[in-house]
Amino acid sequence: MKQLTASEVQFFLVISAIIAFVFGDGITAVMLMHFNGYAAEYSAVLRYFAVKNGLIAMFFFKVITATILIFIPLFAQKKDGSETWKINGFLLAFTLGGVAATIGNLGVIITGRVFVQPESVIIGFILLLAVLVELGDILDHRVMKLRSTTRPLLTEEEWIEQVYS
Fold first, then answer.
1. Stronger pLDDT, 84 or 131, i.e. the higher one
2. C-alpha to C-alpha distance for 89 and 136, rounded to whole angstroms
3. Distance of alpha carbon 62 from alpha carbon 53, whole angstroms
4. What is the pTM of this model?
5. Average of pLDDT values for 73-94?
6. What is the Cα–Cα distance from 30 to 24, expressed in whole angstroms?
7. Is there a domain that residue 164 lies in?
8. How many CB atoms lie under 10 A from the CB of residue 37?
9. Among 3, 35, 42, 92, which residue's CB has the most CB atoms within a 10 Å radius?
10. What is the extent of the structural domain holding 151?
11. DSSP 39
12. Cβ contact 136:85 at 8 Å
């Protein structure tokens, strides 16, 4: 059985973060405001945007801003892979935060009662983000230290040069 690389895990986490945080939370937020009124949305920014521009515009605003937020660390990531697990922790926090927000929204839509407090979801997300990014940073430092104590890895250009020369 093939072992997943950190980059493959990262790709999976990007997709899951987009599904959970962008679309899961975004669609259920639109449904929540449609069925329960604008005041049902906890985020003042999304609530204001929905009141001023409508639910569909608010959804697209959420999609664009959340997608940018998810992709910023990927563009800032170093090419040597020294921040791979830190970024993976960031993406995992967004995935889990999106799942929690989606569950909270669905709970209100289905039952009409709040059983997951929005404050708990936000605080949990922020704490999870801090912990997972820090754990990823620790893991990245250990991986880089391990790489420096073993034979140096070839860059892609060096590998191509050796294979095709």
1. 131
2. 6
3. 12
4. 0.83
5. 85
6. 10
7. no
8. 10
9. 92
10. 6-155
11. G
12. yes
Count Cβ atoms within 10 A of the Cβ of residue 112 and give its class: 0-12 exposed, 13-18 middle, 19 or more buried. Answer: exposed
Single-letter code of the amino acid located at 157: E
Domain count, the chain: 1
Residue 21 lies in a domain: yes
CB 25, CB 100: distance < 8 Å: no
Cβ atoms of 28 and 102 closer than 8 Å: yes
Q: Is residue 165 part of a domain?
A: no
Quick one: tokens of 119?
A: 């404050």
Identify residue 125 by its one-letter amino acid code.
F
Residue 134 makes CB contacts below 8 A (sequence gap 6+) with 89
Q: Is 8 exposed, middle or buried (0-12, 13-18, 19+ CB in 10 A)?
A: exposed
Q: What is the residue whose two structure tokens read 């697990």?
A: 85
Q: Do you know the residue count of the chain?
A: 165
Three-state DSSP at 155 gives coil
- With respect to residue 160, please indicate whether it lies within any of the assigned structural domains: no
Question: Rounded distance, CA 60 to CA 23, Å?
Answer: 10
Q: For residue 1, give both structure tokens.
A: 């059985």
Sign of CA dihedral 145, 149, 150, 155: positive
C-alpha 158/C-alpha 164 separation (Å) is 10
Query: Higher pLDDT residue, 145 or 54?
Result: 54
